[in-house]
Amino acid sequence: MTDHAHKPSVSQAEAEAAVRTLIQWAGDNPDREGLLETPKRVAKSYRELFQGYEVEPREYLEKTFEEVGGYDELVVLKNIRFVSFCEHHMLPVVGVAHVGYLPTDRVVGISKLARVVRGFARRLQIQEKMTSDIAHAIQDVLRPHGVGVVIEAEHSCMTMRGVDVPGASLSTSCLLGSVREDPRTREEFLRLVRG
Ligand SMILES: Nc1nc2c(ncn2[C@@H]2O[C@H](COP(=O)(O)OP(=O)(O)OP(=O)(O)O)[C@@H](O)[C@H]2O)c(=O)[nH]1
Ligand SMILES: [Zn+2]
């Protein structure tokens, strides 16, 4: 498993008690009717929203196809929508990832690129690390000539609180191998991502 991953050592009851505390901290009464089942729902939804701790995204990339008919250009999957959570405030980070690689002799099923994005997104993250995590997983498993990952996302901790700048969006990129070093490949990747 990854450095993030660990088996939950808290019980469902403890998680529910923590949510109850936060409801009180927010200023509401956890015993009023509408909120009675909320701790249970929140604990359950956390299992879903943070599913990334239960998977090793690299494993999605292990099944590859070698019959690629001489295909030797970039493969780019754009606009992979994701929801993540900033590790500073645990507030949603909503955005899109664009993921590309220049295959050597193997390609991967394209859905797996989206699964890798989701696997890393459904953890507490900072965007720079998530960008790099995705790129390095592809680089390490597929061993392509190069990899490019661009992420654009809105951080709720900036758009709904704190500095409060609605619409501000953060762009990050991680380019590896020929997508970084070879000007033609780099241009091509960035053109495909922008287009
Ligand atoms: N680099 C980076 N910063 C992030 C990301 N998500 C949130 N942040 C920032 O993390 C910082 C945490 O700053 P702190 O000063 O510790 O927290 P804070 O007092 O809540 O700060 P404000 O958000 O400015 O009110 C803030 O500047 C956030 O905008 C991210 O993915 N990458
Ligand atoms: Zn934040």
Automatic annotation (TrEMBL):
Question: Molecular function terms in GO for this entry?
Answer: GTP binding; GTP cyclohydrolase I activity; zinc ion binding
Q: What top-tier enzyme class does this entry carry?
A: hydrolase
| InterPro entries tied to this protein | GTP-CH-I_C/QueF (IPR043133), GTP-CH-I_N (IPR043134), GTP_CycHdrlase_I (IPR001474), GTP_CycHdrlase_I_CS (IPR018234), GTP_CycHdrlase_I_dom (IPR020602)
According to UniProt, this protein's pathway is: Cofactor biosynthesis; 7,8-dihydroneopterin triphosphate biosynthesis; 7,8-dihydroneopterin triphosphate from GTP: step 1/1
Catalyses:
GTP + H2O = 7,8-dihydroneopterin 3'-triphosphate + formate + H(+)
UniProt GO cellular component terms: cytoplasm
EC number, as in UniProt: 3.5.4.16
The source's domain of life comes to Bacteria
Q: What residues does Zn(2+) bind to?
A: C86, H89, C157
GTP cyclohydrolase I domain location: 16-193
Any Pfam family? GTP_cyclohydroI
Q: Which GO terms describe its biological process?
A: one-carbon metabolic process; tetrahydrobiopterin biosynthetic process; tetrahydrofolate biosynthetic process
Query: Which keywords accompany this UniProt record?
Result: GTP-binding, Hydrolase, Metal-binding, Nucleotide-binding, One-carbon metabolism, Zinc
Q: Which family does it belong to?
A: Belongs to the GTP cyclohydrolase I family.
Note the subunit structure: Homopolymer. Toroid-shaped homodecamer, composed of two pentamers of five dimers.
Name the chain's protein: GTP cyclohydrolase 1
Organism of origin: Brevundimonas bullata
